Amino acid sequence: MGHQLLQESIPLELQEIQSVYEISRGKKLNETGLAEALNELPERCFTAGPGQKIHVRVIGWSQWAMFLQRHLCHAMQSNHYFLNNMLGVPDEAKKFADQCDQQFAGLRLYKPN
To answer: Distances from the Cα of 42 to the Cαs of 18, 59, 61, 94, in angstroms?
Structure first.
């Protein structure tokens, strides 16, 4: 099971982030803007643009972003734990951590090696 999760957990989390962002914002998430999008601070529940009616947004993108960032970080933590502690391959765990550092270091909840 750990091998399967190692292969699929992060790509599935990224796919979910893309889907929720697209539904919430009405556009695709730029791959280089992942950290910026997931680091957005919570907004108010009432929104309106210039000359628009005010409407209630129960769960805005930033609330989703916080939730999705936690899940992504948990997937990274679980995969590293699997490689380092359960499988006992610290060199592979280090490579995995280095890849995560390169890809996700800009996330608010991510703490690089």
So the answer is: 18, 10, 8, 33
